[in-house]
Design brief:
Layout lengths: L13 H9 L5 E4 L4 H9 L5 E3 L1 H7 L10 H15 L3 E4 L7 H14 L3 E5 L18 H14 L4 E6 L2 H19 L3 E4 L5 H10 L5 E3 L11 H6 L4 E4 L2 H20 L12 H8 L1 H11 L12
Helix pairs in contact: 2-4, 4-5, 5-6, 6-7
């Protein structure tokens, strides 16, 4: 049920709830939810935590994932997702929006907006999707300073350090960076764009910390299931942009149909019905809440002059 009418709103900080989920023996599945209603649908499907992708946020704004997003832009999406779902959310913090002080500002803003966890990557701006070529990496000690700043600024937020080093520095470079980031205060490590089961297993064998795997489509990582990632030694898995990809594909087909057919008559069977939408967003619960607070009083007669 949505946040205005829910009787069971969480009282524990989001970061604490995220840590509790992470402490369980089964891998934590974090589907990407690109807006509030996607978060509600993921929750109704049974997920207990969510992921908010920087690529999904920027794509909704009609922009590429090149570090263009601002802290305020991200907080807008964090607030709608956490308020709608009530679930703990891991948020993509890109490169931290600057250097150490900027990272501290980001952490405080994300916590205030309701985030449970953030990951920060060791790329230089303009950053790229982790599965693209020619990524430019930050000096590892500069990145470690950002992680230390994040750990110092947070009250409850889980800090995940992402390294994109495997593509350019090999496994040894990625592992060395991960160890440095853990020493700086990272709670978990996200090795991006590993390309085989062997790489995932080797990284897990060499880095003793909670690990996050990225199962994005159309990237460098082959398809693995959550159970397969768990068997390889990973405690979290994200599907970062999947919800947005499906929604965008459906929207494009809708607009093409309207242009072709002059209306939506050929697409109605593929639409969420009004009743389904209202059930998802708790429309009638909001009506009942409104009626319980303010009852309309109807004048019985015209007043006398």
């Amino acid at each position: 049920m949505t946040y205005l009418v829910a009787a069971d709103l969480p009282v524990r900080p989001a970061g604490e709830r995220f840590r509790a989920l992470l402490a369980r023996p089964h891998i934590l599945q974090l589907p990407g939810a690109h807006n509030g209603i996607a978060g509600l649908q993921a929750k109704q499907a049974g997920f207990e935590a969510l992921y908010l992708s920087g690529a999904a946020m920027t794509a909704q704004m009609g922009l590429p994932d090149l570090g263009i997003l601002t802290v305020d832009d991200a907080c807008f999406f964090i607030r709608q997702l956490t308020r709608a779902s009530g679930l703990p959310v891991l948020v993509d913090g890109d490169t931290g929006y600057g250097e150490a002080l900027n990272v501290m500002h980001m952490v405080r803003c994300f916590e205030d907006a309701g985030a449970a966890a953030v990951h920060i990557e060791d790329q230089l701006l303009p950053k790229k999707c982790g599965h693209l070529n020619d990524k430019k990496l930050n000096d590892p000690h500069d990145m470690a300073a950002k992680i230390a700043a994040a750990a110092r600024a947070r009250r409850h937020l889980v800090v995940v350090a992402r390294t994109d080093a495997a593509a350019s520095e090999g496994m040894d470079g990625a592992v060395a960076r991960a160890q440095l980031y853990l020493q700086a205060g990272a709670d978990a490590i996200f090795p991006e764009a590993l390309t085989s089961a062997e790489m995932f297993r080797e990284f897990a064998a060499r880095v003793k910390a909670p690990l996050l795997a990225n199962m994005t489509e159309f990237g460098r990582t082959p398809f693995f299931t959550a159970a397969e990632f768990q068997a390889m030694g990973y405690q979290m898995v994200i599907w970062p942009v999947s919800s947005l990809r499906v929604a965008n594909k459906a929207q494009a087909e809708l607009y093409a149909a309207i242009r072709r057919d002059g209306g939506t008559q050929g697409m109605v069977d593929r639409m969420q019905t009004r009743a389904e939408l209202y059930a998802t967003i708790g429309y009638h619960e909001y009506e009942a809440l409104d009626a319980s607070i303010v009852t309309t009083v109807i004048p019985q007669a015209m007043p006398q002059r």
